Amino acid sequence: MKTKLDNLWLGFIFGLIVPIISVCGFFFLFIDNMTIREFFTRVVVIRLISQLISVCIIPNLLLFFVFIWTNRLLSARGVLMATLFSGVIMLITKFII
Question: What span, in angstroms and rounded, lies between the C-alpha atoms of 23 and 40?
Answer without folding.
Answer: 10
